[in-house]
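REQUEST FORM: STRUCTURE PREDICTION
Request ID: SP-0412
Submitted by: Lab K.M.
Chain count: 1
Length (residues): 107
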Amino acid sequence: SQARTNHRARAVRAREDAGVHIVFHGHHADVSSALQQRAEQRVRKLGGRIRRATDAYIRAAGDGRFRRIEIELRAPRARPLVAVAESDSYEAALGDALSRLEAQVEQ
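STATUS: Completed
RESULT:
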């Protein structure tokens, strides 16, 4: 019936929302939505490999000619995993930061 259908819809949404909460912060940064989506997808995937990962913070900053990406992945009762990379483009900095974060997740 209608009540059963609504309950199922709420249960599906709850499971989808149970993943990693991601906050993207740009400071003097012009980051494309495609790059932001790529970062969020990869961090969400890495977060799924950490037991009970809850939050992730992705920070992008542009200072002069350097572009910096910092990714912080948090789980309860665990030290946060932090990866930082700088490059001349956000794409390269993101790739380096994701590689560094993945190395930490594999440890």
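NOTES: Residues 1-17 have pLDDT under 50 and may be disordered.
Reviewed by: T.R.
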